[in-house]
Amino acid sequence: MPTDRRSAALDRPLVSVVIPCHDYARFLPQCLESLLGQEFDPQELEVVFVDDESGDDSLGVARSLLSTMGFGSWQSLALKRVGRPGPVRNAGLALARGEHLLCLDPDDRLLPGFLRRCLKALARSRADVAYTGYFEDSGPDRREVEPPDYSPLLLANQNILHTASLMRRAVFERGARYRSVTSYEDWDFWVQAAVLGARFVRVEGPLLVYSLHEQGYFQAAKKKDGEAKARIVLDNPAFFPPWTRAWARGLLRGEAWAEPFGRGLIPVLREQTGLARQQGPEHSPGPPRGNQLPCEPAST
Question: Is residue 275 scored above 90 in pLDDT?
Fold first, then answer.
């Protein structure tokens, strides 16, 4: 059952930050402190902490920290072990009451200005999702990643949005959910959002720190790269051209011509899919309707 502390003045917080956690208690102080350092009134924030049956007292640490911090409201929820971050995020998003929603992993942290600049971009562009660049931190090394402006073709080809992207509540209410059928749950979520009509806006500059370490979920997800990408395609067929859907079906069937393609990349051009190398009975690549890719980039 969730344990709540709510302010009567915050029936609808401006932003709800959902933090899913499993055995990451050691990262929680810096993650939560990054929310307090946002050049933004913390009274406008709701924090929703969801624990996936941690063995390091993450739930106790979170409750202790949140009870002493100046957030407008907070909630905590203890789940039986799920083992995937997506359903844990869904549980937190279902509890969240904010006008805007953000999923933030406990080993990541926002840099000053993230919330203020993303909110400003959403208001100015009338977009539904604002995303930023980030620093990829692997310990001794730090790499800056600056994503491109949004286009549906780019999102079909690769995940250009970090999980920690600020979205209007309407994205979740329209039906976008994290699905465990693919290891690339966040990529699948943003494709769902696009299919449901979401508009995206990029905010310049690296405004968060993304931690990479051997225990991270992404490291395990990479081992299922081909299957994970194929599931995204087949579960969002309207977003991908027929030849990409044929590639995904062939890959899951184990057909030799359908190769996994580059890690983290989905083939969106016909010549990339390997259809020309197909042998044996042909499987229809789908209806001849061309590449139905919805959503234009938001003007900024």
Answer: no
Whether the CB-CB separation of 259 and 280 falls below 8 Å is answered with no
Determine which helix (DSSP H) or strand (DSSP E) holds 79, and give its type and residue range: strand 73-79
Q: Which two tokens stand for residue 112?
A: 């000053």
Residue 216 placed within a domain: no
The pLDDT assigned to 72 comes to 95
Identify the residue whose tokens are 């799920």: 82
Position 111: which residue type?
L
Position 32 in a domain: yes
In tens, the pLDDT along 34-52 reads: 999 998 899 999 999 999 9
Average pLDDT for residues 10-19, to the nearest whole number?
A: 90
Is residue 154 one of the residues assigned to a domain?
Answer: no
Strands 200-211 and 129-137, how do they pair?
A: parallel
Residue in this structure with the two tokens 């080993």, named with its chain if needed: 107
| Cα–Cα–Cα angle for 242, 294, 258, rounded to 5 degrees | 25
- In this structure, what token pair is assigned to residue 267? 């083939």
Instruction: Specify the number of domains making up the chain.
Output: 2
Q: What is the spatial distance between Cα 269 and Cα 136, in angstroms, rounded to a whole number? A: 29
Buried/exposed 108-132: b ≥16 CB within 10 Å, e otherwise: bbbbebbbebbbebbeebebbbbbb
Please name every residue paired with 20 in a beta bridge, in sequence order, or none if there are none: 50
3-state secondary structure of 182: coil
Q: Residue 47 is part of which domain span?
A: 12-109
Cβ neighbours around 207 below 10 Å, total: 23
Query: What is the distance between the alpha carbons of residues 106 and 19, in angstroms, rounded to a whole number?
Result: 6
285 pLDDT higher than 60: no
Q: What is the pLDDT of residues 218-271, one digit of tens each?
A: 555 667 899 999 999 999 999 999 999 999 999 999 999 999 999 999 999 999
The mean pLDDT of the chain is 89
